[in-house]
Amino acid sequence: MKKSLSFRYLLVALLVVVLGATLVIGCGGQSSPNAGQTNEPVKFKIGHCTWVGYGPLYIAQEKGFFKNHNIEPEMVIIEDESQYAATIAANEIQALGNVVDREVIHNAQGAPINFVCAMDQSYGGDGIIASGEIKSVKDLEGKTIGLDKASTSYFFFLAVLDKYGVDESKINIQEMTAGDAGAAFVAGKLDAAIAWEPWLSKANQRDGGHVLVSSRDFPGIIVDVISMRQDFIDKHPEAVQGLVEAWNEAVAFYKENPEEGNKIIAEALYLSVDEVAEMASGVQFMGKEENINFFNRDYSGANIYKLTDLAIKFWTDKNVLEKSVKSDDIIRPEFVKATSK
After folding, report:
1. In terms of residue numbers, what domain contains 78?
2. From CA 254, how far away is CA 247, in angstroms rounded?
3. Is 88 helix (H, G, I), strand (E, B) or coil?
4. Is the Cβ–Cβ distance between 194 and 126 less than 8 Å?
5. Which has the higher per-residue pLDDT, 11 or 93?
6. One domain for residues 188 and 228
7. Nearest-5° angle of CA 256, CA 197, CA 178?
8. Domains of the chain: total
């Protein structure tokens, strides 16, 4: 009888085990090596300065596009560009919004970054303002121009001179911020200046003052991109893909709803809606289609390979780069290509 009772207990125990296993599999839908793991959103930090070109990041946050792609970026405002390379190298941020030419420099300084997505390009928002006697870029020779060599203004200036075959050494350069250059020009203290809005619109406050050339004449030169740490890309490729797709969705939303988009950006960056609208008028946001073209090496128009190579050439010639940089080592087109499917 003891034997019969033990057998009965054993049978009940086996049934409990089988039933328990069935319930576990049934609740999960399938047996998986990831069972018990949570699907927490990937958290990371994106640095950028106060600039409307980065505004769609906040649209993506507000409209839930980040959440839909299971990512939780934190935007970090960093106004001092001199901190960019050190901040991302120290892994205090994992991504950065900034212009291509400066990020080439930061990569050479040891920032372990790759370009994964284009954000916006200046399209009339930057330019050279000049006095009445300066009718062409060639006329800048022998004149005094104000510009900031520590900003992308200098890169734009070099691109303009390169196109028109003008020797930089024949121009007297006074280094100052773009804002100071614009103000000095309007006050009659400079023959020309490289500036942005509102100084382009204010150039005519000086008799004969005008916009000599603007970024509208040089598309694909001043372009902001999302740079990300290489180790983060390797560890979280799905999060990088989600960021690129959420960005594209935010740009598409902005194009369809500019007034609402400007309001979201204004609140996030502590600007007025009018200020955002004015700045956005000189910017082209780059969404899905623009990125597909821009990250295509064979695209006949402006593309990121041409731009990166141009930056490498200029900064190598100026002895700015601390190490050799190759465009193929810094550009990651796979995330843009994946969105085109």
Report:
1. 42-121+222-339
2. 11
3. helix
4. yes
5. 93
6. no
7. 135
8. 2
